[in-house]
Amino acid sequence: MSKLMNPTPAPQRQAAPGPFFATKQRVTHVVFDFDGTLSWLRHGWPEMMLDTFAPHLPPGQEMHDPVIRERLLHLILALNGKPTIQQMVMFQEYARSHGSGAPEPERLRASFQACLDGHIEARTARISSGSVPVETYVVAGARALLEHLRGLGLRLYVLSSTVQHRVREEAALLGLSEYFGERIFGSPADPAGYTKRAVFERILREEGISGGQLLAIGDGPVEIADAKALGGVAVAVCTDEDVNGSGICDPFKREQLLAAGADVAIPDFNAALPLLAPLFGA
């Protein structure tokens, strides 16, 4: 993981946060999740994961059963933000607890990853060929928000559970790298022991800031809970997995992210600026 760059001193104006936010400090550092928060390249991944699990459900269970489907979707999204292998371990334990077996987690992960990679490659090809604009796969309103935050002089980061080199490649493809420079952090090739919490703590330590100056924006419970535990502000982005910019919060994400401690939940960034502006004293 690259060394964090030295901080650029930010003006110390006091924010007057809006009603959603308890902090009285001005936010100076913003940490974004990547997939589902800035990038829409992996949209639909929960359905792909359910499809991976479907052939291995215990006898008598079917994925088209709404009770089974909802139960597994909740379990999948509860682990969003952690390395994918943990969701595979979860499903193996689920199958065993219902008296059935399931493939080893790594075999499940490889199957899911192959499916996901196929979709990513097809979407990347569409961008590269010019058959679709790059904004098709940037979460609605994200670029305008990034431009605004950069103009305010804030320090912007990406923190993802996706393997680091993939995050950086995809950020470059989507034209998002310029907002973050070297501050794009992903999972190491071997994710054992990797936690977002450790990276959050490193940012605070190396930047010399308090938790109250940190804003985390993401669609996974992990980054939400970690930011709140450190005294930061957390915004849940409950992106629609089917229609980018629909303005509709995914109900499963919304429920879980608010339960994880998010200060507020939004469907995308189209109306985010007025909501967030008080945090930056702008």
Folded structure, characterized:
By secondary structure, the chain is of the alpha/beta class. The chain has two domains: 29-40 and 138-280, 3-Layer(aba) Sandwich (Rossmann fold), CATH 3.40.50.1000; 45-129, no CATH class. It has ten helices and six strands. It has helices at residues 45-53, 66-78, 85-97, 105-129, 142-151, 164-173, 196-207, 221-229, 251-259, 272-276; strands at residues 29-32, 155-163, 184-187, 214-218, 233-237, 264-266. Helix 1 packs antiparallel against helix 4. The longest helix has 25 residues, at 105-129. Residues 1-17 have low confidence and may be disordered.
Task: Describe what is shown at a glance.
With 282 residues, this protein is an alpha/beta fold.
List keywords for this structure.
globular; 10 helices; 41% helix; disordered N terminus; six-stranded parallel β-sheet; 11% strand; alpha/beta; 282 residues; 2 domains; Rossmann fold
Topology of helices and strands:
Layout: E1 29-32, H1 45-53, H2 66-78, H3 85-97, H4 105-129, H5 142-151, E2 155-163, H6 164-173, E3 184-187, H7 196-207, E4 214-218, H8 221-229, E5 233-237, H9 251-259, E6 264-266, H10 272-276
Parallel strand pairs: 1-2, 1-4, 2-3, 4-5, 5-6
Helix pairs in contact: 1-4, 3-4
Low-confidence stretches: 1-17
Strand content: 5-15%
Indicate the radius of gyration in whole angstroms: 19 Å
Give the CATH architecture of the largest domain.
3-Layer(aba) Sandwich
Distance between the termini: 33 Å
Give the oligomeric state: single chain
Number of structural units classed as domains: 2
Identify the CATH class of the largest domain: Alpha Beta
